[in-house]
Amino acid sequence: MQQRIVIIGSGFAGLWSALGAKRLINLHPENDVEVLVIAPEPSLVLRPRLYEENAKRMKVSLEEVFQATGIRFMKGTVQTIDSDKDQVVVLSSEGSRSEVSYDRLILAAGSQLVHPQSVSGLAQHSYDVDTFEGATKLETRLEELPSLPPSPARDTVIVCGAGYTGIELATELPSRLKTIFKSAPAPKVVLVSSTDEVGAELGAGPRPTIEKALESLHVEVRSGSAVKSVDSTGVTLDSGEHIPSLTAVWTAGMGATPLTAQIDGPRDSTGRLHVDQDLRVPSCKRVFATGDACRALTGDSDGHYTLMSCQHAQILGRFSGHNAAADLLGEPTVPYSQPNYVTCLDLGSYGAVLTNGWDRQVMLTGVVAKKVKTQINQYLIYPPKAHEKNALAEAVPQSPNFLGNFNTLLKRWGYLS
């Protein structure tokens, strides 16, 4: 009798969960196990790149990869998870509902931007780079600005939130706006930070480089005051300052997929499910959570937990897929471990900053760091080629050697001997 592993989501964690599960299943052909991915589209949105221009190219089809590897795809949105009955309810794009049973479930539905109710007008009047649709909508807005009558509001673009995404967008916008406005003066960019320091969660290591980049690119910073409201005329801060703008972009705060609330078990403040080292939800033995939907120990000596990041999602997916299949097949699981952590922050035309470790010790800045960031964005985060052996071979559950990989690149480029 055929058994089934259902994976909810086709993002980084979902894709690599499917490949990780299929790889192990293929090593045991005597077992009849189907790997089924359920998502609105058979595509991977390159979410870490949505702050860049030309958002329409930030979506990659997964149809060839799924077909080549024998992974089944079902188009739809999971509305309900019933872990007692081992089934999910799927809503199709036409509005019909169907029940899909599973023997093992992997929740890889990711995360989404949070719009706090305390910030009035946010949902109605702000833009974002969190989703493919949001990024394309923002791009359309930026491109139409030159056709609007000049005014302080038209000529100011506000980025609300000075975390990782906010900094990357704020430093990318000056060159984008200059290209859009051609010979005319481009709008100014204002970065709003609720904390006194920009990029507070990034620590002191990269901050001097970030501050130099913002100054060099003439990005204005409003720090120490949170956004109170957004309306059609601009952004009002808690300090009382009103900044006129027709284009306010919200980047502050992420929450796990709401589907995590349908699974019994503890969750953190962002809604991520606590999982064990096999990435299983302890209270639901046939359910695994991965990517942005899970809170997992990375296995380093200081007890750090995974972040909502592509860097963690790609590796988490490999482990969750392997372990769900191993659990079903009666094979040994591989405890998740990803103790090494690097940060590569894009700083627009100024360059980038590459750091190592959770204390973010600066390794590279400027042009060289930008080359590393380009390599990450344009190559390392892309899905594998469709050829079955190549795709499955890359799905081995193992901790990556980021520093070794980057040093290899630097040697190839002639920066290291």
TrEMBL record:
Q: Which Pfam families is this protein grouped with?
A: Pyr_redox_2 (PF07992)
In this chain the FAD/NAD(P)-binding domain maps to 4-314
Q: Does DNA damage count among this protein's keywords?
A: no
Keyword Phosphoprotein part of the UniProt annotation: no
Instruction: Give the record's keywords alphabetically.
Output: FAD, Flavoprotein, Oxidoreductase
The domain of life is Eukaryota
For this protein, the record's Gene3D superfamilies field holds: 3.50.50.100
The cofactor named in the record is: FAD
Q: Which family does it belong to?
A: Belongs to the NADH dehydrogenase family.
Q: Which PANTHER family match?
A: 64 KDA MITOCHONDRIAL NADH DEHYDROGENASE (EUROFUNG) (PTHR42913:SF3), APOPTOSIS-INDUCING FACTOR 1 (PTHR42913)
The protein's name: FAD/NAD(P)-binding domain-containing protein
What organism does the UniProt record list as the source?
Bionectria ochroleuca
